[in-house]
Design a protein that fits this description.
Blueprint: E1 23-34, H1 37-45, E2 49-50, E3 53-54, H2 55-68, H3 70-73, E4 84-92, E5 96-107, H4 112-130, E6 138-148, E7 154-155
Antiparallel strand pairs: 1-5, 1-6, 2-3, 4-5, 6-7
Helix pairs in contact: 2-4
């Protein structure tokens, strides 16, 4: 199967979606931010607020902004009307935060990249807000969890 973002000569090209039908499309992506037990304890003690503001609320806003700007950051993405975006940040164990970003559109192409971009920027925002406490933070397992609509559906096992 050829790469869809290459033309017949192998040069980068935006996929022409003009002949496709607009359908409802959704995608969910996730990322894990391992901050360590010390930072997690400090975050819990401050109700997840820092001098820069609420870590989780700021991450949600940053991720939502990223979803809406995906086309301007990833060169061959189409600008899409975003019908909905939800980002959840939850504690994962004693040392990590889990970000999940779900995006919906009614369009001719999917929103997988928008969901991945939203999850990654939300995770990076958490890193930025916590790095004053330690730089020993990792962003892990950025991945697509599921997608609906278009030619095929996808569910990660």
């Amino acid at each position: 199967m050829p790469f869809t973002h290459l033309d017949a000569d192998g040069k980068p090209a935006m996929v022409d979606v003009g002949d496709k039908l607009a359908t409802r499309r959704t995608a969910t992506a996730e990322a894990l931010i391992v901050v360590g037990p010390s930072i997690m304890s400090q975050l819990r003690a401050g109700d997840f607020s820092t001098k820069k503001g609420s870590v989780t609320q700021t991450a949600i806003i940053a991720g939502t902004m990223a979803v809406k700007q995906t086309w301007s950051v990833i060169p061959l993405c189409h600008p899409l009307p975003i019908n909905g975006c939800t980002i959840e940040v939850r504690e994962r164990g004693s040392d990590a935060l889990h970000v999940e970003c779900t995006v919906a559109t009614e369009g001719k192409t999917g929103v997988e990249m928008e969901a991945l971009h939203g999850a990654s920027v939300a995770a990076l925002t958490i890193y930025d807000m916590c790095k004053a406490l330690s730089h020993d933070i990792t962003v892990q397992d950025l991945r697509l969890v599921r997608k609906r609509g278009g030619k095929s559906d996808f569910d990660r096992d």
